[in-house]
Design a protein that fits this description.
The structure holds two protein chains of two kinds.
Chain A (H helix, E strand, L loop, with lengths): L3 H11 L6 E3 L7 E4 L4 H10 L7 E10 L4 E9 L6 E9 L4 E3 L8 H12 L2 E3 L28 E2 L2 E2 L3
Parallel strand pairs in A: 2-5, 6-7
Antiparallel strand pairs in A: 1-2, 3-4, 4-5, 8-9
Chain B lengths: L5 E2 L6 E2 L2 H11 L2 E3 L5 H10 L11 E3 L7 E5 L4 H13 L5 E5 H6 L22 E3 L6 H16 L9
Parallel strand pairs in B: 3-4, 5-6, 6-7
Antiparallel strand pairs in B: 1-2
Helix pairs in contact in B: 1-5, 2-5
The chains are: A alpha/beta, B alpha/beta.
Chain lengths: ~160, ~160
């Protein structure tokens, strides 16, 4: 079992050029902040390194932070073999939200990323099938979980507001 | 009702109005589309099961809308599902009836304000005959909804338009 500080140190040693940051003053687990276009490389390392073996992407969630002008993605990783956990966060510009996909690392990232795309409009680069997953395929009114989202008046002739 | 009023003493002949006969036949074997949406569907299944026994009213779930006489909209109708429900309804043969079960199907229920994906009442898409309130309604409430629907069918007229 590795502590967040040890995991962070391992990442720093293996990715010296990356802009990594550790936040420990959290009510829950410590968060490692990474850059959105390097997250796939970092996660490949977390998945494969024999002292880490993060084989489980427990959760992937998108968060809208309009005051900071950011869209964030949180990754909750776990290892079923070593029984440790870590949380990663990437932030990306709200006007051009692009994050590397993790479908190559964990297959379960596929639908999670589609959900984050569907509800927040985060583009996952190189995702194999980035379609809407919950909303109708022809939904053109935007991304419902963004804070500035406005529901449309009609969808396919059906009145939407109460 | 007057359907079995004029029974002859030998018991083999019954005189009735065609209207009454058709209505009686219709309301006594309402076949239901085997279709459920959310937690209301659980109550609907409980109503079909042995304790409440929907079958004693002639309700049999059918796997195809083309076999069915009525559909229970049992649960939250999302906008995505609404287009599918409309298609199901259009595939049902006439005469066809609709029971809207629970707050979500009636008016959007708890999703009325912030449910960006929820249709605020199935009556915006298809015509509803009976609304059953509740969240979810107990099986007794759904049974009463069915009895109300039967009552409605009993008084239908072949000449006068009812709906």
């Amino acid at each position: 079992m590795k502590k967040a500080e040890e995991i962070f140190q391992l990442l720093k040693d293996n990715f010296p050029a990356s802009n990594l940051e550790l936040k420990t003053d959290q009510p829950t687990e410590a968060i490692i902040i990474a850059s959105p276009l390097e997250i796939d490389k970092i996660c490949f390392f977390l998945h494969d390194a024999p002292e880490l073996l993060f084989d489980d992407l427990m959760n992937l969630s998108g968060v809208d932070e309009p005051k900071a002008g950011l869209l964030a993605v949180y990754y909750h990783l776990g290892s079923t073999k070593i029984k440790h956990k870590i949380t990663l966060k990437v932030s990306t510009d709200r006007n051009k939200p692009e994050v590397s996909t993790l479908t190559e690392v964990w297959k379960s990232a596929d639908w999670h990323e589609r959900e984050a795309y569907d509800l927040l409009g985060i583009i996952f680069l190189n995702h194999p099938d980035l379609r809407r997953i919950l909303m109708p395929y022809d939904w053109d009114a935007g991304y419902p979980l963004r804070k500035d989202y406005e529901n449309p008046e009609f969808y396919q002739g059906m009145k939407v507001p109460y | 009702m007057g359907f079995l009023d004029k029974e002859f003493t030998d018991g083999n002949i019954v005189i009735a109005k065609a209207e009454d006969l058709f209505n009686w036949a219709r309301l006594s074997s309402l076949w239901q589309v085997s279709f459920g949406l959310a937690c209301c569907a659980i109550e609907m299944m409980a109503t079909s099961a042995s304790h409440y026994d929907f079958d004693r009213f002639g309700v049999i779930p059918r796997p195809s809308p083309r076999h069915a006489d009525f559909i229970i909209i049992s649960g939250t109708v999302t906008l995505k599902m609404a287009t599918r429900i409309k298609r199901l309804y259009e595939q049902m043969p006439d005469p066809k009836y609709i029971i809207s079960m629970g707050s979500c199907a009636n008016c959007g229920g708890p999703y009325w304000e912030h449910g960006y994906h929820v249709l605020k009442g199935i009556d915006r898409v298809i015509p509803v005959d009976v609304y059953v309130p509740g969240c979810p309604p107990r099986p007794e409430a759904l049974l009463e909804g069915l009895l109300k629907l039967q009552e409605k069918i009993r008084h239908e007229s072949m000449i006068k338009k009812t709906a």
